[in-house]
Amino acid sequence: MNWKIKKFFCNLVALPGFTRTQRRRIRDRLMFRDVILETNVNFFTTPSKQIYNKTKINVAFCSDKRGIKLMAVAIKSLLNVSANKCDYNIYCVIDTDVTSAEKKSISKLTDGTKSTIIFLKPNHDFDKSYVRHWTRAIYYRTMLPDLLPDVDKIIYADIDVIFCNDLIEAYNIDMDKNYIAGVKTFNNGYINSGFLIMNLKQIRKDNLYKKWIDASQRKQYPNPDQDLLNFTCRGRILYLPLKYNFQPMDGANIYKYHTPCEIADIQYHLVVLHFSNWMKPWHAKNKRPIFSELWWKHATQTGLW
After folding, report:
1. In which element (H, E) is residue 23 found?
2. Across 200-213, average pLDDT
3. CATH superfamily of 50-299
4. CB–CB of 225/213 below 8 Å?
């Protein structure tokens, strides 16, 4: 079915919804019906045996105190889907007001695995940066080249994601001289910064970190951190397939920015499910987006929800 016809059909069927949220949920369930069915099947299927990846993969999450529980869910989902496949060095950049009890809860997530969690304190390089209505925590990801001087490459993910597959393939992607890799959300090459592969070695080599600090203080971007990365890395961005940052709230727009092959691939090889925008799985039951039940499968295992 042509995606424009499919979009029209989904919008028509969703019209009886009493609220904006209900209409959105009906529309998305129809739009991504095949993805929902396959993802649920894959989630409850025991993974087949494969060669164990001996190299630890570097991954980073960043949050202020308010997002600690969400960070726990993201980490737990990553560990769940990577069991018997690979291990991680999980770097958590968190605010100084996060309590020792909260840190302990996060650290316990790796019990029974060979993965390790390393807590990092944010620096003060972006204290004067423009944040709009957000907090300074939006710049924690841009601090990684400075906070991890001995790490050459790292995968960064927002805390409102869950993982549906391991990151072995993503980590082995050759970055060449590109600074970052991400998934397009517009035809002009603009990427969403919710999942990034960061070439920290190249960023330091070209002194891009200082440019980030300067630009963040001079420019008042609508989306400060994401716009900053897109504009300063332009021409040195590697584009990843949709499976690494599938945002259901993009709706029919994914058909504009991604190939039919990419869209078909998320049915069977989805890696990152990103709950961006205004509907979140931790909201009240009548206000949750599609795929929320998968988020809660991991959340209940953290002991924090």
Report:
1. helix 20-31
2. 98
3. Spore Coat Polysaccharide Biosynthesis Protein SpsA; Chain A (3.90.550.10)
4. no
